[in-house]
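Allow me, if you will, to draw on your knowledge of protein folds for a short while. Thank you for your consideration; the sequence and its tokens are set out here:
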Amino acid sequence: MKDFFEKNKIVIAVVVGVLIAGGAIYFSPSLIKKGEIDESQEGSCGNIPELSDGALKLATKVIDGDTFLVEGGYSVRILGIDADERGYPCYEEAKDRLEELVLNKEVKLEKGKEDLDQYCRYLRYVFLADENISLELVKEGLAVARFSPEDIKYREGIVEAEKTAKDDKAGCKWSGSAISVPLPVGDFEDLTAEKTSLEIVFACNAGNYYGKEMIVEGRVIDGFSSKTNTVFLNFEKAYPNQCFTAVIFNSEQYKFVQNPEDYYSNKTIRVKGEIENYQGKPEIILKDPSQIEVGD
């Protein structure tokens, strides 16, 4: 056996080298389809090329009302707005309008504070000639204004456009069609319109009612407890894409069921309270168990 390896060590070395190279190619992250969200890529965007501020790129495919692909198959997430994803009320209208605006056209991509998001999508303000696409979609009532606290570029104009769209009841977001989505099926006894005199809204429409006391209904897709033992119950989609969050601070948890993040997971529930805006997402802070109810 020793003589066999001595005589064939060059051949063996070549074979081993080929296998190693093949494995590296097979498992390379660059083979993941560009533009598709893959949570396993989170934090590992080394295969995404640099894109200079103000670069001109051809828009080749629209994913939804705030995301599209450019030449090369790379994904761009439009800054300053949030549009509905597939399965939600204004998805089709926002997607169709974005296609009308940018598809097969050369757009200018302007940087904000961050270059890429956790899914390796370019974060950019998008312009067609001098037209701000974020501003246009918000003005037409097809998307809502969304900004991180640090990113103030174009914020004033887009927020003002959203206010005008709300006042004018413009587009899918504000004309009432988005609110007409059927609520999830659930049989509730206490958190009802009759007993509370409050309006009941679907979790993914809660962002239309900041500053108002409402009942929000939806399914808890994931729940977790933070390092400070604050419990977050995320509705309809997992973090960070949740439609709505119910929050229980550590100081109030003794009033609730043990491990509420597990108890309420995958259940259709209603929560009552004032809808607040936290970093662009609607939430209600729960201070008493009377604010939450599980549907049978």
Confidence is low (pLDDT under 50) at residues 18-42. The chain has two domains: 39-174, 182-294. The helical segments are 2-26, 91-102, 133-139, 155-168, 171-174, 193-196, 260-263. Residues 39-174 form a domain with the OB fold (Dihydrolipoamide Acetyltransferase, E2P) fold (CATH 2.40.50.90).
